[in-house]
Amino acid sequence: MMENKVFLSFTFYSTILILKMYVVAIITGQVRLRKKAFANPEDALRNGGLQFCREDPDVERCRRAHRNDMENIFPFLFLGAIYSLLDPSPTVARIHFLIFCVGRIVHTIAYLLQLRAPTRSVAYSVAQLPCFSMALQILLATTPYW
């Protein structure tokens, strides 16, 4: 497996994306603490009282960014792993992985920093292109076996 250059490239970019998700989770926690907006009563009690068991727009923005990551990065992990097994060109595969990774990073930055539209939408759309490409190539490669 470690001889598969495409899989190694996929592993690199996937790890970057997982680390990015951890960063968003940490940011969410920090915003919760800063804004004193806790989801659970026990956390609110530990940090000042039940009045802090509440929602906050900034915390919710972080949570939406994280949820969007899960909705998009998890499918990429599946598609990229299967795509890596199809023996694609290492250069083309790396371009697929790079575009998705950069698109997701820009999407998160745009989401968290509330950048002007259509920055986030463009980043989302660009990141979807390699996923659709990989999905199509997987379907084409497996169609004879259905």
UniProtKB/TrEMBL annotation:
Amino-acid biosynthesis listed as a keyword: no
One of the protein's GO biological processes: prostaglandin biosynthetic process
Alphabetized GO MF terms: glutathione transferase activity; oxidoreductase activity; prostaglandin-E synthase activity
Record's subcellular location: Cytoplasm, Perinuclear region; Membrane
Gene3D superfamilies in UniProt: Membrane associated eicosanoid/glutathione metabolism-like domain
Recorded superkingdom: Eukaryota
Cited InterPro entries: MAPEG-like_dom_sf (IPR023352), Membr-assoc_MAPEG (IPR001129), MGST1-like (IPR040162)
EC number: 2.5.1.18, 5.3.99.3
Transmembrane region(s): 6-27, 92-113, 122-140
Mitochondrion keyword on record: no
Main location: cytoplasm
Membrane topology qualifier: Multi-pass membrane protein
Catalytic reaction equation(s): prostaglandin H2 = prostaglandin E2; 2-glyceryl-prostaglandin H2 = 2-glyceryl-prostaglandin E2; prostaglandin G2 = (15S)-15-hydroperoxy-prostaglandin E2; (5S)-hydroperoxy-(6E,8Z,11Z,14Z)-eicosatetraenoate + 2 glutathione = (5S)-hydroxy-(6E,8Z,11Z,14Z)-eicosatetraenoate + glutathione disulfide + H2O
One of the record's GO cellular component terms: perinuclear region of cytoplasm
Keyword annotations of the record: Cytoplasm, Fatty acid biosynthesis, Fatty acid metabolism, Isomerase, Lipid biosynthesis, Lipid metabolism, Membrane, Oxidoreductase, Prostaglandin biosynthesis, Prostaglandin metabolism, Transferase, Transmembrane, Transmembrane helix
Functional pathway: Lipid metabolism; prostaglandin biosynthesis
Cofactor (UniProt): glutathione
Free-text function comment from the UniProt entry: Terminal enzyme of the cyclooxygenase (COX)-2-mediated prostaglandin E2 (PGE2) biosynthetic pathway. Catalyzes the glutathione-dependent oxidoreduction of prostaglandin endoperoxide H2 (PGH2) to prostaglandin E2 (PGE2) in response to inflammatory stimuli. Plays a key role in inflammation response, fever and pain. Also catalyzes the oxidoreduction of endocannabinoids into prostaglandin glycerol esters and PGG2 into 15-hydroperoxy-PGE2.
UniProt similarity note: Belongs to the MAPEG family.
Protein name as catalogued: Prostaglandin E synthase
Species of provenance: Cyanoderma ruficeps (rufous-capped babbler)
Lineage: Eukaryota, Metazoa, Chordata, Craniata, Vertebrata
